[in-house]
Amino acid sequence: MARVPDLYGLLGVNREATDDEIKRAYRKLARELHPDVNGDPEVQRRFKEITAAYDTLKDPGKRRRYDLFGAAGAPGQAPDFFNMGDMGDLFDVFFGGGMGGAGRRRSRRRSRTERGPDLQVLLTLSFEEAVFGVAKDVDVDTLEQCTRCGGTGCEPGTHPSRCTGCGGSGEMQNVSRSMFGTVMTARPCTVCDGTGEEIAAPCRQCRGDGRVQGLRSVHVEVPAGVENGMELRVLSAGANGRAGGGAGDLYVALSVQPHPVFERKGQDLVCALQVAMTQAALGADLEIPTIDGEPEHVHLDPGVESGTVLRLRGHGVPHLGRRGRGDLYVTVQVETPKPKTKEERELLERLAQLRGERPTKGEGLAGKLRKLLQ
Ligand SMILES: [Zn+2]
Ligand SMILES: [Zn+2]
Question: How close is the Cα of 236 to the center of ligand 1, in Å?
């Protein structure tokens, strides 16, 4: 362990020296101490020292870290600064990198460019559109890239500058001393939000964000077989990212309207078929509506019961993302007729008498029961 060297003192400048003053001081010393000018080992050691000092002080981030560290670290608290092999490790331990060679540099800086947020829209589909698929253009309230700055957030002709709050490191560091030694804590810089960059001249149209509110028409391909409540993801159709970052995704929530005839049960469709009593009794050839538009012909045998289910293969919903379709199930519902005319009534009574189904006069439910008990 050795003392923390006075880097300013080595270059012969004070702590308030400007970048220019530091540069000039270093150049002046380097000319005198350069190994090409003087081969003396002691002179060469000093040349290495001033070069290391200049390397630290010319970089605003490193300089700030050094200022913080130097202020807190008492003599004897830090390893030798100029043990070059350890220097990177020292800063890795205390500062999370940044002081070592380029190869070991680890930046905690957040990128100012940021992926845009995902968006969600609701898309209402007719029953048929969900079954067969449809292509639709959906209006999305989104953040579009600013046309004035092209997404950079800077006024045209200007560029982001190094953050004055953190010197470009993206971090604000705090050094405290405890019984265990010097403790370094770091948090994202509040001035630049951890990006290390500041926009001196924010774009007037987007106020530095790089994006503006806009309405975008997004083309959505709805595949056949989707269901109510499903969500489609359209890659990169969400809001644009900050400072030219990539766009988020768009999630399209599907709301499918009911159908007046068909109901969906998974990949199958179900519907009811109203059949007159006489059709059910005598048998009939009927047309059944299908979701495909063209009706299907079905034959009902005489005496078909109400509640009978007919299956029409392949007239259901296409499987989502693969071949094949479900079926259509048709439930027969026999309508009970209420005689409208005297003639109809007489015919039904005659039929009932022939089949022994109509109770004779004076015989009601009580009479029927009596017969059964005999
Ligand atoms: Zn702009
Ligand atoms: Zn900052």
Answer: 20
Ligand 1 centroid to residue 201 C-alpha, Å: 11
* Centroid of ligand 2 to alpha carbon of 185 (angstroms): 15
pLDDT in tens, 253-288: 999 999 999 999 999 999 999 999 999 999 999 999
Give 101-110 pLDDT, tens digit per residue. 333 334 566 7
Is the CATH number of domain 263-337 3.30.70.100? no
SS (H, E, C) the chain: CECCCCHHHHHCCCCCCCHHHHHHHHHHHHHHHCCCCCCCHHHHHHHHHHHHHHHHHCCHHHHHHHHHHHHHCCCCCECCCCCHHHHHHHHHHHHCCCCCCHHHCCCCCCCCCECCCCEEEEEEECHHHHHHCEEEEEEEEEEEECCCCCCCCECCCCCCEECCCCCCCCEEEEEEEECCEEEEEEEECCCCCCCCEECCCECCCCCCCCEEEEEEEEEEEECCCCCCCCEEEECCCCCCCECCCCCCCEEEEEEECCCCCCEEECCEEEEEEEEEHHHHHHCEEEEECCCCCCCEEEEECCCCCCCCEEEECCCCCECCCCCCECCEEEEEEEECCCCCCHHHHHHHHHHHHHCCCCCCCCCCHHHHHHHHHC
**pTM for the structure as a whole:** 0.57
Span from the CA of 145 to the centroid of ligand 1 (angstroms): 8
Span from the CA of 95 to the centroid of ligand 2 (angstroms): 16
Centre of ligand 2 from the C-alpha of residue 175, in Å: 17
Please report which ligand is nearest the Cα atom of 212. 1
The structural domains of the chain, with segments of one domain joined by +, span 7-104, 113-147+210-257, 263-337
Q: Which ligand is nearest to the CA of 244?
A: 1
Smallest-distance ligand from the CA of 147: 1
Instruction: Look up the CATH architecture of domain 113-147+210-257.
Output: Sandwich (2.60)
Residue 195 C-alpha to ligand 1 middle, in angstroms? 18
